[in-house]
Design goal:
By secondary structure, this protein is α/β, with parallel strands linked by helices. It is built from 20 helices and 14 strands. It folds into four domains: 129 residues, Rossmann fold (3-Layer(aba) Sandwich), CATH 3.40.50.2300; 162 residues, P-loop containing nucleotide triphosphate hydrolases (Rossmann fold, 3-Layer(aba) Sandwich), CATH 3.40.50; 82 residues, Orthogonal Bundle (Helicase, Ruva Protein, domain 3); 61 residues, Arc Repressor Mutant, subunit A, CATH 1.10.10. The strands form four sheets. Strands 2-1-3-4-5 form a five-stranded parallel sheet, sandwiched between helices. Strands 7-8-11-6-12 form a five-stranded parallel sheet.
Length: 459
C-alpha cells in the first residue's frame, strides 16, 4: 500500500483529501504545519506528498519543498494552493515540484496527478536500481584508473576499443561511457558480433530492403540506423567477418551506410565503442582482422584487467552480488564469513567477474544457513579446476559454450588417436575435410610436434 503525506493548515482540506485517497486504498498521513510535515516525512518516508503553499505558522510551502528535496530528492511533491500565481507555480517547478493543483481541488485531477507521480517514482526507482546493478564495482587502483578514464573520454565522441578477457566487464564499461557522454539521452544499441551468423551480420548492422534475399519479406532497419544520434556497442568485434568489417570501415570513414539490397546511402551519426577478448594484433597477422579498421577503432584503448589481477575487489563484488541475488529471489539477506572470502580470493577465476557472480548465486541459493562459510565455498559443486564448471561459469552465450566445449572435445579425441586426422574423423563419424575445418577454426595444435598425421596423405 502506497503512503501519501498531506500537508495543509486547513483541517477541512486535509480531511477531504484523506477521504478521497483512503477510498482509493492509499495509506494517508496528515500534517497541519511545516514542523509536523518535516517530522512525519523523516519518520515515515511517504511515496508522494501533497503540500500546501500558503501556511500561516512556521515555514511556507516553498521553504518546506526545499527542505523535503534536500532530505529525499526522489519523492514526488504535488503543490496545492488557493492563492497561487503563475510565478509561484514556476518557482515551485524549478525547485523540483512534480505538479501544481489549484483549490478547490477536483477529485479526478487530484487522482490523475497522484497516479502520474507514483508512476514517475516507480520509473525513477527502476532506473536507479538498473544503474546500481550496472556500476563498475571495485576499489583497486586499476579500477579507479578505468573509472577516471571513463569520465575523461565519455563526453567526447572519440571511438573506443575495450579489450579484456571474457567476463571482465567490458559491457559495463561501454555502458558507463555512454552514460558519461553527451549522447546519453539517445539510444545505446548493443550488437554481439559473436552471436550473429556471418551471413546475417550485415543485415543486422545495416538493415535490408524488402526482397533483397530469400526471407526478406519486409524492410529491416539495422543497428546503425537505430543508434543514429547515440552510441553503437560492437561487442566481440574480433569475431566479425572480413566482409562485414569492410562495411563497418566504410560507415566509419564516410558516416553513411547502405542497406543490404539497397541502392542509396543513408547518413548516420553514431559513436562507436567496440570490445573484444581477442588479441587483435594476432588476428591482423593471421589475416582475420583488418588493420585499417583496427586503427579506426583504437582511438582510445581501454584494457580491462582480469579478476586475478585485482583480487582486492573480490570482497566488494561478493557483497554486492549477495545483495542482488537475495533481492531478486526473495531470499532473506545472507552474509559471508571472512574465511569464505579468503577461500574465494585464492581462486584464479578463469571466467573472471562473470564466474564469480555465478558462483555467488549458487552459494546463496544452495546454502541453508544465513551465513555462507568456508565449507560452503569448498563443496564439490565449487571444486577448483572443474572444466565443466568453468565452461558454465565463463561462457557468456550458448554459442561461446558450444565453441569451448567442442574445442576441448576435439582436442581430446585428436590426442586419443595420436593426432591422426583420418582415424579421429572415422571414430567421430565425420568427414575428414570437416574435421580439418574444425582444427583450423579452433586453432588446434599438436603439442611438441608440427602438423598432423593423416593416413590418407601417406597413401
Amino acid at each position: 500500500m502506497k503512503t501519501i503525506l498531506v500537508v495543509d493548515d486547513e483541517k477541512s482540506v486535509r480531511d477531504s483529501i484523506k477521504m478521497i485517497l483512503e477510498y482509493e486504498r492509499y495509506n494517508v498521513l496528515l500534517a497541519e504545519n511545516s514542523t509536523k510535515a518535516l517530522s512525519v516525512f523523516k519518520e515515515e518516508s511517504p511515496d508522494v506528498v501533497f503540500l500546501d503553499i500558503k501556511m500561516p505558522s512556521g515555514k511556507d510551502g516553498i521553504e518546506v519543498l526545499r527542505d523535503l528535496k534536500q532530505m529525499n530528492a526522489g519523492v514526488p511533491i504535488i503543490m496545492i494552493s488557493g492563492h497561487g500565481t503563475f510565478d509561484t507555480a514556476v518557482e515551485a517547478t524549478k525547485l523540483g515540484a512534480f505538479d501544481y493543483l489549484a483549490k478547490p481541488l477536483d477529485r479526478d485531477k487530484l487522482l490523475i496527478a497522484l497516479r502520474n507521480a507514483l508512476e514517475q517514482r516507480q520509473l525513477t526507482e527502476e532506473v536507479r536500481t538498473l544503474r546500481e546493478k550496472e556500476r563498475i564495482l571495485g576499489a583497486s587502483q586499476k579500477i579507479k584508473e578505468i573509472l577516471t578514464l571513463v569520465q575523461r573520454v565519455g563526453p567526447s565522441d572519440a571511438r573506443i576499443l575495450i579489450t579484456g578477457e571474457s567476463g571482465t566487464g567490458k559491457e559495463l564499461v561501454a555502458k558507463a561511457i555512454h552514460r558519461a557522454s553527451k549522447r546519453v539521452a539517445m539510444p545505446l544499441v548493443e550488437v554481439n558480433c559473436a552471436a550473429i551468423p556471418s551471413e546475417l551480420i550485415e543485415s543486422e548492422l545495416f538493415g535490408h530492403e524488402k526482397g533483397s534475399f530469400t526471407g526478406a519479406t519486409t524492410q529491416r532497419i539495422g543497428k546503425f540506423e537505430q543508434a543514429d544520434g547515440g552510441t553503437i556497442f560492437l561487442d566481440e568485434i574480433g569475431d566479425m567477418s572480413l566482409q562485414a568489417q569492410a562495411k563497418v570501415l566504410r560507415a566509419l570513414e564516410e558516416g553513411k551506410i547502405e542497406r543490404v539490397g539497397g541502392s542509396k546511402t543513408l547518413p548516420v551519426d553514431v559513436r562507436v565503442i567496440a570490445a573484444t577478448n581477442k588479441n587483435l594484433h594476432e588476428e591482423i597477422k593471421k589475416g582475420s582482422f583488418r588493420e585499417d579498421l583496427y586503427h579506426r577503432l583504437n582511438v582510445i584503448p581501454i584494457q580491462i584487467p582480469p579478476l586475478r589481477e585485482r583480487k582486492e575487489d573480490i570482497p566488494i563484488l561478493v557483497e554486492a552480488f549477495i545483495d542482488d541475488v537475495c533481492s531478486r529471489n526473495g531470499i532473506a539477506q545472507k552474509k559471508i564469513s571472512e574465511r569464505a572470502i579468503q577461500a574465494l580470493t585464492t581462486r584464479e577465476w578463469s571466467g573472471n567477474v562473470r564466474e564469480l557472480r555465478n558462483i555467488i548465486e549458487r552459494l546463496v541459493i544452495m546454502t541453508n544457513d544465513t551465513i555462507i562459510d568456508s565449507a560452503d565455498a569448498e563443496t564439490s559443486s565449487f571444486r577448483k579446476g572443474s572444466v565443466i564448471d568453468d565452461f558454465f561459469s565463463s561462457s557468456s552465450s550458448f554459442q561461446e559454450f558450444k565453441d569451448r566445449a567442442e574445442t576441448a572435445f576435439l582436442s581430446h579425441q585428436l590426442k586419443l588417436h595420436g593426432w591422426n586426422v583420418s582415424k579421429t574423423a572415422e571414430a567421430l563419424g565425420m568427414e575428414r575435410s570437416h574435421l580439418y575445418t574444425k582444427i583450423k577454426k579452433y586453432n588446434l595444435e599438436r603439442e611438441g610436434k608440427e602438423g598432423v598425421e593423416d593416413e590418407g596423405e601417406k597413401s
